[in-house]
Specification:
heterodimer; A: 12 helices; B: 320 residues; Rossmann fold; six-stranded mixed β-sheet; binds adenosine-5'-triphosphate; binds magnesium ion
Amino acid sequence: MSKIWTIARREYKQYFTSPAAYAVAAMILLIIGLIFVSEVSSGIDSFGQYVPDVINIIFPISFLFLFAIPAITMHVFSEETNSGTIELLLTAPIRDWEVVIGKWLGAFLFMLTIIGTTWVYPIALNYMIDPGIDQGVLLSGYLGLAFVAGVFVAIGVTISTFFSSQVASFITTMGVFIVMWWLIPIPARLGGTAWAELMNYLDFNSHFAATLAIGTIALSDIVYFVSVITFALLVGTVSLETRRWR
Amino acid sequence: MIQVKGLSKDYGSRVAIEDLNFNAKRGEILGFLGPNGAGKTTTMRILAGYMPPSEGKATVAGFDVVEESMEVRKRVGYLPENVPLYGDMTVYDYLKFMADLRQIEEREERIYEAIETVGLEERAFSYIGKLSKGLRQRAGLAQALLHEPDVLILDEPTIGLDPAQIIEFRKLIQNIGKERTVMLSTHILSEAQQVCDRVLIINNGQIVVEDSPENLQARLAGAQQVALRVDGDDDGLDKVLNKVKGVTRVQREKDGSLVIETSSGKDVRPEMARAIIKAKYDLLEMRPVGMSLEDIFLELTRENAGPPELMDDQEYEEAE
Ligand SMILES: Nc1ncnc2c1ncn2[C@@H]1O[C@H](COP(=O)(O)OP(=O)(O)OP(=O)(O)O)[C@@H](O)[C@H]1O
Ligand SMILES: [Mg+2]
């Protein structure tokens, strides 16, 4: 466990020396900030009838993940492969799966840090509107964001084991996210068949947008996210292992 | 400490090493020589647990490199060829990171010792990315020494070091080599000659020769050469020299000296000296020229050269 933590800590700290990571954090905070401002002003416009909703902040954050997370995870293994430092990790007394989990944990914690800083907006919102915001929706929405980030980071980290070029990792990761976001839901919406049922289960928005983001927490959704993360990291470990045989 | 049996590795259709066999004992410094692409790095990577061999078996410190990779990695200090390092970390942070991965107990002490050993005290808190090549090399070396490994595997460790540091490094290796096993690859033959107890030359993935540097030289200096400087040198001298028993060839160098090739096993110098004096020439200088390790190396790694001749050698057969 402590070895995993060693890897995670280095990965996490590494982001604070990375201009790309700062750019991503700044982009998210800026865009969410703009959305926040327009939310608040539109709230005032409508005779005090309109109540700004935290969902209007949570959804855009999850959408920004599509671009932000590939930028956060693209370097993870690609940079190590490119600079050759992977040779240090693969000859240190640490197992491949420990390396993969450690890397994921470090990148995930960094994403959580960024997500955490966006809390200022709902909190500000809470003080601005009279009855306050729905705390339940806020909590479950942010829990959902954490799970979505966990899944996306796991996929990004795994994809970075395939490429020594960060650009290739970035593009591939974003491509996969786009498929997950827009293409899987299409057959899922057709409904009826077993195929559509499966796609509906795989569609993460049916576990996030339709549930957690609007304030319902179900065990089955949590199981879904944890198993996707596990599966992605398993693929990453196998990929790391097979590179030794090449 | 290191045992290699029938080790082979191919990358797709390219054979990198083929059927390597060698051992290294505790307290031995093994030099690994060979031209570019010979398979040195490949062999060392297998021994360090970076990748498995395609065929064959290797044990390091008594553990199989494939089956007991973790045990091997705990006991090996490895300096990869191009010294990969995290440029965004300071030397100290980097060593702390590696010490944590290795779960070293007296971490601070060991880090300090390693930094001191490689002479990086003044740059301990500099970012590795901002260090010069030689200083980075030292940081890499500190990492390999951190956990006091039983076996040190160093892939071209002296590349990029300044002369003073190279001398320091050789002393260090010799010190470490007293109780532990060191395997180092190099292209600098004089280095192998000075530091190593045994030299292993590989070419095209196969071991060409394995011996002590002294034996190697003695063995290949079959045609012993003697350099002469004689006052009043003329054609008559050739006749005089050619009459001496054991002389096979007389050759004039550009600087006016003569190089005499003699058949092996016989020291022709006393007789040659007498003959020269008797013929009324003035002998100014006489000096044996051993074949340098460079010559041997080139000889052995040339295409179609080396092994067939050497196979006759009884010692080589014994080594096999
Ligand atoms: N990852 C790889 N993929 C394909 N071929 C490789 C790979 N690594 C090495 N080779 C090939 O294997 C052979 C041996 O390479 P190796 O790096 O072991 O040589 P070396 O003795 O270390 O050479 P050098 O003195 O240049 O460092 C070479 O022909 C090389 O091209
Ligand atoms: Mg090499």
